[in-house]
Design goal:
Layout lengths: L1 H47 L7 H8 L3 H13 L3 E4 L4 E4 L1 H13 L2 H16 L2 E8 L2 E8 L14 E3 L4 H8 L3 H10 L13 H14 L2 E4 L6 E9 L5 E10 L5 H21 L13
Antiparallel strand pairs: 1-2, 3-4, 3-8, 4-5, 6-7, 7-8
Helix pairs in contact: 1-3, 5-9, 6-8
């Protein structure tokens, strides 16, 4: 009986020894599947950036993937409806199933929820109050705020409206709007002076808006309230349209000229991050290359 048990044990060891190799093969297979998934997602992103479609040769050349690998991945994605093939043009493009998945995301996204963690991080890194704003006519409206931990800090109330021409957030958004929309808003704008630093004419405002396009962010240098400075950068949706702005506000004593540049880069990075997590697209002509 003992010999039989020993034999069975030995047999089990041998059996287990034989199954070790397939287990490793399975792990290797899983790694290969993950790599294939990553490659397939790269192809989807490439097609999304080229809505007119691309030939297999062009896709292969852009990604560096062999044409055979690219075709195999496209065939699988086509079976699931994520890509489609135009036999006349010999082009691959995004399929309807990709739209269905993207639309589900659009229905579920909430700008405040998406931006909140980035606002907290921005407040922590800068030490200043972080705000999220949208444009409403010729005003900006504050949607959310993460207050600074400092005793002396800038405060605003969600729902509060401020004329766009004296705010960094307002300038950040309107600078990135289509020309026709921008002209309509500027045509209705009243340059009410809030302080001695407030912009009071269209020419000066246009110069500021030009700087936003160049730098990717806007400044409010005591234009809304004396002793208060603000930096803001736009947030874009999936169409590359400016829909909001993220900003920081603080006293001149802490936001001096020496600190502005590094703080501006932090605001710009936060705006890019919110845009990404919101499913947006940052236009290449806005600010420096990422």
């Amino acid at each position: 009986m003992a010999q039989q048990t020993a034999s069975e044990t030995a047999s089990k060891k041998v059996t287990n020894g034989k199954t070790d190799a397939p287990a490793k093969k399975s792990a290797s297979s899983q790694t290969g599947q993950v790599q294939s998934l990553v490659k397939a997602l790269r192809l989807m992103r490439l097609l999304a950036d080229n809505p007119a479609g691309m030939s297999l040769k062009a896709v292969s050349a852009t990604t560096g993937m062999p044409a055979s690998t690219t075709h195999r991945l496209f065939s699988t994605l086509q079976q699931e409806g994520f890509v489609r093939f135009d036999r006349e043009l010999m082009h691959w493009s995004v399929g309807v199933q990709a739209f269905s998945v993207g639309y589900a995301f659009l229905q579920d996204r909430d700008l405040v929820r998406v931006a909140k963690s980035h606002m907290v991080a921005l407040m922590e890194s800068s030490g200043e109050t972080a705000n999220l704003s949208i444009l409403d006519g010729s005003n900006i409206v504050y949607l959310a705020q993460v207050a600074s931990r400092q005793m002396m800090r800038a405060m605003s109330t969600p729902g509060q409206r401020v004329p766009l021409h004296c705010t960094a957030a307002g300038k950040a958004i309107i600078a990135c709007l289509p020309s026709k929309t921008k002209e309509q808003i500027l045509g209705r704008l009243h340059y009410v002076p809030m302080t001695s630093h407030t912009i009071e004419d269209r020419g000066t405002l246009m110069q500021h808006l030009g700087q936003v396009l160049l730098n990717g962010y806007a400044k409010d240098d005591e234009e809304h309230a004396l002793g208060l400075r603000c930096l803001a950068a736009p947030i874009f949706d999936e169409n590359g349209s400016a829909v909001a702005a993220i900003s920081i506000s603080g006293p001149l004593a802490r936001m001096g000229d020496a600190e502005l540049e590094s703080q501006a880069q932090s605001v710009l990075a936060a705006a890019r991050a919110v845009t990404r997590d919101y499913g947006g697209h940052w236009p290449s002509q806005i600010g420096p290359a990422a």
